[in-house]
Write a structure and sequence with these properties.
single chain; alpha/beta; Cytosolic phospholipase A2 catalytic domain; 11 helices; about 35% helix; globular; lipid degradation; EC 3.1.1.-; PNPLA_dom
């Protein structure tokens, strides 16, 4: 990566000279987004030492994937700002969390909180929604400065809905406002309300979405991203034949050409919670809530034994 004196990128991340497809994946975790924010700020500062003060992470990653708070960080790093450069520098992410979290997670009266838990989410989300809409404005998914992938979950259809820049460029109904996508993927059940919005396809037909946090199905976007990468890379390979120089040809099964940096948001202290006898008295929702990351943990354990799936992990911390 190199920059001219006026900040113009001379060797962008998508250059055909690159030998790897670079992927950044950011987990969910609410205000604990400060953890990957700290890591990303450090990484970007080191890249700036090499390539100049205008270097941004979006210049180095072909794809950025994020769930929940990771989806918000993804948008901050890739949404276009002044001079078509990223809206946020990585060092500004933590400042955003520290300044806005007290208003996003404003505590109610204890009695009202208990009553609210029965009839609705813990927080109304109004401040968060307003802030996201203010920051992202009318920016749509296809306008991100590098390709992104953000998972959500449709509670009406009971299935994941995955938003990606590559798909948005060819499927009009998936080219949603970036603000709607961020509000949706951050709508953690019981904490923030689900989000409804509509889009239109190329013929003007409406498509409705009833979405909540993508962490309902996978809090680690890399789980769904391995499968989705195969689809995305097929699309990328086709693009090269139409003289699109953003990517180089790569076989979908050639994992050796994928470099993945997967960032977590800390982990809770291990506790003994339920026995098999206890769980037999409850509905399946407990199992879903307690085990929705089990697949990701299983994949990580297996890959680690073989020296694969590099991942930045942190010391255990208490959940917020």
């Amino acid at each position: 990566m190199a920059f001219s004196t006026n900040g113009e990128i001379l060797n962008p991340a998508g250059s055909p000279s690159k030998k790897l497809v670079t992927i950044l994946s950011i987990d969910g975790g609410g205000i604990r987004g400060i953890i990957p924010g700290t890591i990303l700020a450090f990484l970007e500062s080191k890249l700036q030492e090499l390539d100049g003060v205008d270097a941004r992470l979006a210049d180095y990653f072909d794809v950025v994937a994020g769930t929940s708070t990771g989806g918000l960080v993804t948008a901050m790093l890739t949404a276009p700002g002044r001079n078509n450069r990223p809206l946020f520098a990585a060092k500004e992410i933590n400042q955003f969390y520290l300044e806005n979290s007290p208003n996003i997670f404003r505590q109610k009266n204890r009695l009202l909180s208990l009553l609210g838990a029965v009839v609705g989410p813990k927080y109304d989300g109004k401040y968060l929604h307003s802030k996201i809409q203010q920051l992202l404005g009318d920016t749509r998914l296809h306008q991100t400065l590098t390709n992104i992938v953000v998972p959500t979950f449709d509670i009406k259809l009971l299935q994941p809905t995955i938003f990606s820049t590559l798909e948005a460029k060819s499927v009009a109904s998936k080219n949603a406002l970036l603000s709607d996508i961020c509000i949706s993927t951050s709508a953690a059940p019981t904490y923030l309300p689900g989000h409804y919005f509509e889009t239109k396809d190329s013929e003007g037909n409406k498509r409705s979405f009833n979405l909540v946090d993508g962490g309902v199905t996978t809090n680690n976007p890399i789980n769904i991203f391995f499968a989705f990468t195969l689809v995305a890379m097929n699309s990328v390979t086709k693009e090269i034949f139409t003289e699109n120089q953003d990517f180089f040809p790569v076989k979908p099964i050639d994992y050796g050409k994928f470099l993945v940096l997967s960032l977590g948001t800390g982990s809770a202290k291990v506790e003994e919670r339920f026995s098999a006898q206890d769980s037999s008295k409850w509905g399946p929702w407990v199992a879903i809530q307690q085990g929705h990351n089990a697949v990701g943990q299983h994949i990580y354990a297996g890959e680690r034994r073989h020296g694969r799936h590099p991942r930045v992990r942190t010391l255990p911390s208490s959940p917020f």
